[in-house]
Design brief:
Layout (H helix, E strand, L loop, with lengths): L2 H11 L2 H6 L3 E6 L2 E7 L6 E8 L5 E6 L5 E8 L4 H9 L2 H11 L1
Antiparallel strand pairs: 1-2, 2-3, 3-4, 4-5
Length: 104
């Protein structure tokens, strides 16, 4: 698979509403993965997200701040866990709890 194919596959596996709510933009194919920016989430005003396909056929996710320092990292994520994991990485527990209460 080319880097663009991998990036498109990853993007298609993430719930579009989660990307929209995080203000995701500037989607870019990187080596064996996808890069994009997020803004105005409950945890980060602005951040860089890197999702890479690893040798185990799972994903490694890294979130970096404006200074490109790693602020959150999770490894070994399966494709069906991507949306839930990303949402949990860039939204605070309080915000997610409030969403659950509002939808109940």
């Amino acid at each position: 698979m080319t880097n663009l194919q991998v990036a498109n596959t990853i993007r298609n596996q993430i719930n579009k509403q989660i990307l929209w709510c995080a203000g995701a933009n500037k989607f870019t194919a990187i080596e064996q993965g996808l890069y994009f920016n997020i803004r105005n989430t409950s945890k980060y005003k602005f951040a860089h997200v890197y999702i890479k396909l690893n040798a185990s056929d799972t994903y490694d996710i890294t979130i970096k701040n404006n200074r490109l320092n790693t602020v959150n990292e999770v490894n070994g994520i399966y494709c069906d866990e991507l949306s839930y994991t990303l949402d949990g990485m860039w939204e605070s527990k309080e915000y997610l709890k409030q969403l659950q209460e509002d939808s109940a």
